[in-house]
Every structure is written in C-alpha cells, then in structure tokens.
Amino acid sequence: MSEYAARQAIIDHGRALTAAGLNHGTTGNISVRHGDGLLVTPTGMGYDRLSAEDIVPMHMDGGFDGRLRPTSEWRFHRDILQQRADVHAVVHTHAPYATVVSIQRREIPPLHYMIAAAGGPTIRCADYATFGTAALSEAALTALDGRLACLLANHGMIACGATLDKAVALAVEVEELARQYVLSLQLGGPVLLDSAEIDRVLEKFRTYGAQPDAV
C-alpha cells in the first residue's frame, strides 16, 4: 500500500468508526506501521476535518514530521508497534459499552465464543494511568500480552491487527462483546464458556476465513 493510500485508509476507517458510534468528536486515534516508523492521526482533530496530508509520520524514537502534532496517545501506538511484530495497525476508541466496562475496571469474560477473536478467553482491562503517559503505554502492553485487544481503565479500548481492516473489525467486535456483557449483567450475569471451549474456538480461528488456492 502506498503512503497516500495508507493515510486515506486511516481517515476512511476513522470516519466509519465515528459513524458506527464507536467514537465522537475528536476522540479516538489510529496508527499503521509504515516503513521504519508509523503513520498516526493528529491531535485534536475530528476525522471529518482530516485530509491525507494531515496524517502524521512518526519515527520510532518519538520524533515526527509534518505541520501537525501527533495524537496525545502516540506513545502506546509507537510502543505496541515497536514491541509486537505481529501488529501492523492500532485502533483506539472511546466506544460507549467498552468504556462503561472499563469504568467498572472489569475485564470482559468468556461470555461468547467471539471473545477468542482477541486472542484469549478474556479481554483484560489495563490499570488506570493518565492519558498520553508512559505509564499508560506500559499498562496497555501488559494487558495486551498474548492478546490483540484490551480495555483501558476509565478510558476506552485498544484493538490491534495484522492489517488496519482487521484492527477496525476487532474494535467493532470488542464493542459488541462489551454491549452483550453489560446487557447480560442486567439479567443476573452471563453464563460463561469454559477454557476447553475457548481453546477449541482459538484453534478453529486459525483457519477461519482461509480459502484454498484457486485451481
């Protein structure tokens, strides 16, 4: 993918997340790995105002190019991409149900087999830290250990993926799981799947969506 296409994809997906209700105003941010660094959304600008030229190129040392400053959350974007070779895109949202669960500082338990899409039997909630800090980045990395998504206490969620499409799709799935969790708590709490079932689903997900080569 060209740099211009990557920049435009960030904007298009950001607008789609806002339209789907996972963000509002200037909340949320997106990054993709690009070359030896990353491309990331700028600080304090809604996706509806962005053009491809506004996306900020960043270096792994924290430096950046262009006329706009990167999102205040650039640190966890950089750190995740730097430490996770399997991740090429990071999506952060303030999606309402995921944020409600994070405000309770709960993890999302194995209430539905789709929890395995995030890589394990739960979606952990990272410890609270002030936004934009190294402490928040460290907490997120701990919660993402072996996983592709986590909640951020009193804040929102992070979803990662091998591609931007996959990271965005996972963010949507995490929000749906959070919604199901909140609603099930109103009925007395979910009946949870056991670890053996989650292991079976994780194995099935290894080939989910894969198609044989065309003859």
TrEMBL record:
GO biological process terms, alphabetically, are: pentose catabolic process
| Keywords recorded for this protein, A-Z | Lyase, Metal-binding
Q: Does the keyword Chaperone apply?
A: no
Boundaries of each Class II aldolase/adducin N-terminal domain copy? 8-182
* GO MF annotation, one: aldehyde-lyase activity
Q: Name one Pfam family in it.
A: Aldolase_II
- Give the GO cellular component terms, alphabetically: cytosol
InterPro entries recorded for this chain? Aldolase_class_II_sugar_metab (IPR050197), Aldolase_II/adducin_N (IPR001303), Aldolase_II/adducin_N_sf (IPR036409)
> Is Chloroplast set as a keyword in this record?
no
Q: What is this protein called?
A: Fuculose phosphate aldolase
